[in-house]
Amino acid sequence: xxxxxxxxxxxxxxxxxxxxxxxxxxxxxxxxxxxxxxxxxxxxxxxxxxxxxxxxxxxxxxxxxxxxxxxxxxxxxxxxxxxxxxxxxxxxxxxxxxxxxxxxxxxxxxxxxxxxxxxxxxxxxxxxxxxxxxxxxxxxxxxxxxxxxxxxxxxxxxxxxxxxxxxxxxxxxxxxxxxxxxxxxxxxxxxxxxxxxxxxxxxxxxxxxxxxxxxxxxxxxxxxxxxxxxxxxxxxxxxxxxxxxxxxxxxxxxxxxxxxxxxxxxxxxxxxxxxxxxxxxxxxxxxxxxxxxxxxxxxxxxxxxxxxxxxxxxxxxxxxxxxxxxxxxxx
Length: 331
Ligand SMILES: Nc1ncnc2c1ncn2[C@@H]1O[C@H](COP(=O)(O)OP(=O)(O)OP(=O)(O)O)[C@@H](O)[C@H]1O
Ligand SMILES: [Mg+2]
What we know:
Layout: E1 5-17, E2 30-42, E3 46-51, H1 57-64, E4 72-77, E5 80-81, H2 87-96, E6 97-100, H3 104-107, H4 114-119, H5 130-143, H6 160-172, E7 178-182, H7 190-207, E8 210-214, H8 218-224, E9 227-232, E10 235-241, H9 242-247, H10 252-263, E11 304-306, E12 309-311, H11 318-330
Parallel strand pairs: 3-8, 3-9, 6-7, 7-8
Antiparallel strand pairs: 1-2, 1-4, 4-5, 9-10, 10-12, 11-12
Adenosine-5'-triphosphate (ATP) binds at residues 16, 33, 51, 53-59, 102.
């Protein structure tokens, strides 16, 4: 069941310092990795985020749990504006938003036993006794289908699927509103992937969670997601219902992605993309690869609303269309 807006991201910008001396001219001390990204998440939905490697998916995820800080823009969680310089706001964020990282090996401390790793999820909860905490670890292990006998193993002794169950247990041991799943199954065998996806579906129902699901895999999107945000070099180019994105993609980039996916057999990723140009420095970011480009595209398009979908492309701007036709006609 979908409800109210639970998370709102407005004009988010995230930048990182450029370390290389070669790249850092006077004005380029920072690399903007996320630029003016806006989206809203409704309570109870699974919002997919798709994009090529390096497009900024994990950067957005980490910002939403306060690991990265925004350099501009606003984030509202359940109506509360998050001030990233305020400790109480960061705790509010981390209490309510959990994350499963894409690499279960790197995100589990190899020196800790599984029991203690899961316990890390209670870091912000001081109100429980030792016994209560232990009971919670056992209960959540059961919930994610992790055998009790594994609780005193080390991460290196677990399979990939078991490790992702541990990450999940750590994330939900204290109740969460939103769970961000950053390619939670991309490192797993296909048969194990299905188990984890089913587990995630069941937990979502049981715990009334809202998901942000980051993935490369179109099959996973179809199976898991309600709406889809398409990210390209740090810009959100389209936000649509998954069905619409497949059947009638709006943005030329989404169209190209869907075509690549459909025509290249057995490949559900983006690695098959071969003819894409460089991202444009000025104007629309997709300018150099776009089959539909127009003169106006030398200006960065706004996010345009179209039948409750959002698309960052001049093709859908009514006021520009006449100009475009005029320009075309005069040539
Ligand atoms: N802490 C950091 N410092 C500097 N640059 C960073 C940092 N984190 C990410 N980046 C850069 O930001 C860009 C986006 O990275 P990000 O990890 O968000 O991409 P992604 O979409 O998750 O890719 P993948 O699909 O490979 O996981 C990349 O160019 C990356 O090098
Ligand atoms: Mg990533």
